[in-house]
Amino acid sequence: MIRLAVRCHPELAETVLADLAALAPNGVEQDEGPGYVEYAIYGAAGELPELGELRAAAGDGIVEIESTEIPDDWGDRWKDFHQTIDVGGRLRVRPSWEPMPADGALEVVIDPGQAFGTGAHATTRMCLELLLGLADRDDAGGALADLGTGSAVLAIAAAKLGFSPVAGYDHEVAALEAAAANALANGVEIELERINLREALPPLPPTVVANLTARILCEVAARLGDGPAPERLILSGILREEREEVAAAFAEAGFGLADSRLDGDWVALLLERRLVSAR
């Protein structure tokens, strides 16, 4: 079995992923580190795209392409790397093969077969923390939209916290399939729709979560005047050095900073409409 990995600059990650998805319809694995995002695909020799195709897909955003031979039982061994994630001592994200502790914590059960999000990444954890914060101040209610829902970790958590109805939007068909399966496994209802956020926004409810790249978030901010604006947004996928750019884009749309999180190189923001002063 071969693991073929492409590393690209974070600001071009969404574009590279969209191009790679056409070459790897069964999904890609995602990892991130300082200054790069890595996408990996798996297959037998002769089944994977040519290096030239990958270089063309990555374009100017390429950092590195690496091909590695791995044991044929990788399909089972990858489970060792996906373990239970605890958020704030009250919310747990766990794979289905991990035992369910009897401590009463709210649980989101995710099987990340195609790596569209497991809750383990800092950006997802910080969004979950901010959702818990809304619940603490009795703002976990009403409609919510998850832009770029992936495996629907955030949408499922929101539904379990009391938001309703909850909608999830993504451009990747495989992501929507994973989201639907995960919602069913968790016993929650999520309205799922395929949409390209670079082209248009869906109708936005009072609460929006969006764990995207800074570039796409700024594009979302520019389109907020096209329809009714949400009351609050939870945003992540933002590198530390991109924080001011994203905050400024949403300030132009009438949003101020209400709360934030920082974890390593990553930032998450809670923005509220018509807030007079940031804190």
Structural commentary:
Strands 10-9-8-11-12-14-13 form a 7-stranded mixed sheet, sandwiched between helices. The protein has a 4-stranded antiparallel sheet with strand order 2-3-1-4, covered by helices on one side. Strands 5-6-7 form a 3-stranded mixed sheet. The protein has 279 residues and is an alpha/beta fold. The termini are far apart. The longest helix has 15 residues. It is built from 8 helices and 14 strands. The mean pLDDT is 81. The radius of gyration is 18 Å and the shape is globular. Helix content is 29%, strand content 30%.
Q: Largest sheet at a glance?
A: 7 strands, mixed
Supply the helix-strand structural class: alpha/beta
Mean pLDDT: 81
Radius of gyration: 18 Å
Please mark out the parts with pLDDT under 50 across 5 or more consecutive residues, or reply none. none
Task: Count the beta strands.
Answer: 14
How do you describe this structure in short?
With 279 residues, this protein is of the alpha/beta class.
